[in-house]
Amino acid sequence: MNVLDNESATLSIILPGSASEADGTIQGIINASAAPDNDITVSLASSDTNTIQIPPSITISAGQTSSVFTATILNDTRINWDRSILLTAHVANWIDGTAAVLIHDDENTNLTLQLPAQARQSNGTITNGGRVLIQGIVATNLSLSLSSSDTTKLQVPALITIPSGQTSAFFNLILPNNIQTNGTQSVQVTASAMGFATVGASVSIIDSQTPPLPIYLNPPNLTTNNPVFVQLSWRPGVGEGVEQLVNGTFELGDLTGWSTTGNTNAAFLVEDGTIPPASGDIVSAPFSGGYSLLGEQSTVPGFLELSQDIWLPTNVPSVTLSWVDMIRNFNGSFDTNQQFRVEIRNTNNVILAVPFKTEAGDLALAEWTQRSADLTPYKGQAIRVAFVVDASQDFFDLHLDEISIRAANPPLTTYDIYLSTNSLPGAPDLFGSTTNTFCTLSNLNAFQNYYWQIVARRASETPGPIWSFSCLPTLLINDVSLREGNSGTTNATFTVTLAGNNGQIVSVSFSTLDGTANAPADYTTTNGTLTFNPGETSKTFSVRVKGDTNNEPDETFFIVLSNPTNAVLARAQATGIILNDDLKQPILAGIPNAVINELTAFVYTNSATGSSFSDVPLSYSLDAGAPAGAQINSQTGIFTWTPTEAQGPGLYAITVRVSENSSPPRSDAKTFSITVNEVNSAPSLGIISNLTVHAGSLVSFTATAVDGDIPTNHLIFSLGAGAPSGAGIGATNGFFSWLTSEANEGTNSITVLVTDDGSPNLTASRTFTVVVAPRPQINSFALNGAGFCISWTAIPGMTYRVQSKNTIYGAWLDLPGLVTAASPMAQKCDNSGLSLERFYRIQLVP
């Protein structure tokens, strides 16, 4: 028989009020209000087993009222915020015990906002230019709000999302471009999200009128072996324009956008400055941002290539490639098998240019260096930019960062050049200004320290660093050319000049070297040492050139300077040119046949080869039979001809001859043909004068037209649209006739057309105006002694006749004298005496 205990007790749980995820475990106590006679199993439960896990049960021993248990706090990478977890203790028929513990999340809720230190108005949209990071992951998508303190300078999206399970999100930066000169402005971007601390970061926005800092200055700072003829050079600063490259900063943390190739001994790694290279070199931080690229080899030999294909836009003035590299060559020297180079290729891997490669003598273990190259010649093309490392001899670490290809339309930049012997050049030291990126200095003093600075200037200016260099006395050698002669020898005399000597003894060795000329057949080898004592500035030596009568090309040999002491070489090699003075037959280049229209100019420049010497000139001429008007410049060979109307259509053979003024004379001739097409020309219509007439007048004239074509075309006259009613013109004779009326009063515009029957039909036109004034109207009568005067409306310049009669049936009689109107009113006085009645009329004299 089973007996069930119906006695009850109350359970309770004692826990710490709070704990952190990092605590790992906490101790809890289960208490019973009465001690059981037998062992009692207490079931335990957690409201969130992803945060606190506890044993499924514990035992309260007989006669005891409590038992201790351990709760495990799970530490994760999630951002859970602080949360209360409920633990429950249960025994059947007993009253459950519960207790809550507050668990503090140990992932902080601070946001991190990453922005570039600076950007330019001309950058347009900077893809993935900003980034927001959190310190852990969230269970659901996290929405963040972004804002800019000045949207006229920098715009950001209002909302971005960090997906669940991720710790960051990128966003684009948009820089509106404007023409205002604002210099550099700091813009604050703010990021916020519910449950997170708001964060802000700033970026400096540089306007387009502030030029970037000049880079890649030469000569290098603190160098001492420069010639006294120094060319200062620099590259325009970088950062302007719209980015065309993907992930050139590697801030995505991977190689998105890039392709890599290489052998199994080498690899490119995106790294954050914590990866030690296999070469054993020190760890290097990125040039900027959180990531850079490391190319390394596990063993030698190693080959690496990093490339990306880019379409370069057409409608921009300039495209610039820039990058920052740190070259670490543990072989100590560079050659074609131990080299870093940058190649511009087409997408079929045909090399178009090599804008940079390491050379023998370059610094083997360099630091971060900014470089750039002009890609403007490749606008409108798809190119492949490739960074290549050949490490066949020893470890070769290549660090890359800030790779960029920007298409820009920058304002013109002026570079002010300051040069001084003072370590702080100032305004009085302005040497000059240029829009180029180089400047040649001459006649500097040896052993003098010079300080120079480039200031880039638009509406605002950006000063470059102040660099220093000094010079050594400088040796220069000239090239020599001479005729070989027909026999014996001729001396080719070379001059070595010393510039900038300060009183020391200077020496240099010289020797000959074959080119296309070979010793001893063409010249005699020589070598030696030239010594310049203090005060001496010039030395000469000669090379004997052998003459012959062979007709052969010009030939070259070289003079090599070496081993200078107390001086530097401006040129290490000079060229000797042996001119062939054996006359040769001139050769006229072929002339292509041509097809042209009559009355159209044809121009062709002939070319020929002959003697190399200016005193044996070539002369051009036309053989007999050339068409009238054709001519050729005897010195330049430029042929010109404009066929007349009479010369088309036709086929003309023309012979051009080139002659050499030699004895005996030599010449060459080429014949070519020109086909002249007949072209219909528009007829020419004579000028038609504007007219002013009275209503009722007949306007008539004969229009004249000429057709210049041969043979002459037939001409047809007509009137253009809008001609007044009643106006007409003879189709073949051009006779125009129009009887005006009161309905035509005002200005009438009439166009006469003449059309030929050529192919195609061509038309000429003349437009004239006829102003139709009202008929003459008697305006007034005025007594004038024994007669009276009549006034009427008139057209200035027209002539009128006044007639009268004493009875209505009588004959009209002319008053003496015609009247030519000088104004819109005309007048005639009748002094024939008064009568009881008299009639008058006004007539227009044709």
Automatic annotation (TrEMBL):
Annotated CDD domains: Cadherin_repeat (cd11304)
Keywords: Calcium, Integrin, Ion transport, Repeat, Signal, Transport
A GO molecular function held by the record: calcium ion binding
Residues annotated as domain Calx-beta: 475-562
Keyword Lipoprotein in annotation: no
Superkingdom of origin organism: Bacteria
SUPFAM superfamilies for this protein: Cadherin-like (SSF49313), CalX-like (SSF141072)
Annotated Gene Ontology cellular component terms: membrane
Record-level GO BP terms: integrin-mediated signaling pathway; metal ion transport
Record protein name field: Na-Ca exchanger/integrin-beta4
Source organism of the structure: Pedosphaera parvula (strain Ellin514)
Lineage of the species this protein comes from: Bacteria, Pseudomonadati, Verrucomicrobiota, Pedosphaerae, Pedosphaerales
